[in-house]
Amino acid sequence: MKFPGRRQHRHYFPVDNKNPLTNQVNPSSNATQNYIVGIDQVLVDIEAKVDQAFLDEFDLHRGMSQVISDEVTQRLYQRLKDESLINYEFAGGTIGNTMHNYSVLADDRSVLLGVMSKDIHVGDYAYRFISNTSSRVDLNYLQSVDGPIGRCFTLIDDTGERTFGINAGLINRLHPDSIDESLIAGASALVISSYLMRTQPGDTMTEAAVKAVKCANAAGVPVVLTLGTRFLIEEEPEFWRDFVHKYVNILTMNEEEALAITGIEDPLLAANKCLDWVDMVICTAGKDGLYLAGYVDEVFKRESEYPLLSGEIHEFNRYEYSRPMLLNDCKEPMRIYTHSAPYMGGPESIKNTNGAGDAALAAILHDLSANVYHKNTVANSSKHEQPALTYSSLSQMSKYANRASYEVLVQHSPRLSRGLPEREDSLDQAYWAQ
Predict the structure, then answer these.
(1) What pTM, to 2 d.p., does this model score?
(2) Which spans are transmembrane here (predicted)?
């Protein structure tokens, strides 16, 4: 996808970007760079193939995400090492993945907030996290702690079912004092996950996250929440409904998490229900693709040129060419929806589903930040007569998010290793039609 923002260019001397009419340096070349901020439980993902007996030995419930003790973590990791069961070790964390993917796609700055071990040694968990994170992700605001960061074991059985064992280490010790309010207020978006609310007595992560969210709300910075796992949402669905209604602008989830928070199985209807609480919804639905939902003012609606689709909502994609807006910016709000089937029908062989949703969210954030960048550099553009939340239409963003997800599905790493090409021979031109 081609957005305004940083790009690699050939340089010819002199390189001063002067306007030939005024002989003055073009102000757009010195525009303030925008960025996004994410808060995460900094951890490393360790992926291994195991059987049911292995899960039983460590009292891990198949298909669930569980917190495990330091003692179990050491025994589990040593057993995996001794039997050479580990396939990969990657920098992880749902928001850490998203920040990395955003910086790869946008070739621009993102800022990660969290904790990092004070003492880092070659080959340890903290070293693996840093060495596998894009240099465009600003880690300078991480809070140092005297101890380990988190470890997440992704244990895959013969059926492909994934069981997660999470050892927190000190990942939940981010202190509210480490939240830089001016940093949050200057961001294009603040991104958090539901995991930040799953803490133990003595942890300060939840307090820090809530402080950041309130700061973003006060500064008019969009707050993006990814629901993380249905098991966490199922414990307190009413709490999460109240939380997103009070603090969140953009909600991202998969179909299981959508069911947990709304009680509705159909992803489209679940996304529609979530619009009661937020301004925009991203819902990944596995092999069925991706649904987006949002609001637009009646005066700015744009009708789709694609065939109209009917699900539980009749012709729901009629206005998918519209650019979504915050509900408060709409005088006559109307709901808009779009759906995209998996890119190229989906990969022939899925190597990894962990991180696909993070890549989709990163693509949406890239579009959102491109809109902020364009507004800062070309404020009088006709494009900004509409106070839109994003640079592109709902339909175009859905395609971009699907394409980014595909790139993760066909590789083992949950993080993108490179940006997407602007043009692809294998891509039907109609897929990117304006």
Answers:
(1) 0.86
(2) none
- Per-residue buried b or exposed e for 118-129, using 16+ beta carbons within 10 Å of the residue's own CB: eebeeeebbebb
DSSP-based three-state secondary structure for 144: strand
CA separation (Å) from 235 to 194, 228, 269? 12, 13, 22
Sheet with 250-254: list strands edge to edge.
137-138, 110-113, 36-39, 190-193, 223-226, 250-254, 280-284, 290-297, 333-340
pLDDT at 258: 96
pLDDT given for residue 209 in this prediction: 97
Q: Could you tell me the residue ranges of all domains in the chain?
A: 33-43+92-149+169-420+427-432
Please, what is the average pLDDT of the chain? Answer: 87
Q: Return phi, psi of residue 275, to 5°.
A: -65, -10
Check if the beta carbon of residue 60 is closer than 8 Å to that of residue 66: yes
Annotated binding site for GMP: 93-97, 198
Question: How many whole angstroms separate alpha carbon 327 and alpha carbon 332?
Answer: 9
- Detail the residues annotated as belonging to a binding site for ATP: 284-289, 357, 402
Give the CA angle between residues 390, 393, 399 to the nearest 5°. Answer: 105
Tell me which DSSP letter residue 252 carries: E
In the annotated binding site, the residues are: 93-97, 198, 284-289, 357, 402
- pLDDT given for residue 10 in this prediction: 43
Q: Which residue ranges of the chain lie beneath pLDDT 70?
A: 1-32, 344-354, 412, 421-434
Name the residue type at position 406. Y
**pLDDT tens figures, 398-411:** 999 999 988 887 77
- Please tell me the total number of residues recorded for the chain in this structure: 434
CATH number of 33-43+92-149+169-420+427-432: 3.40.1190.20
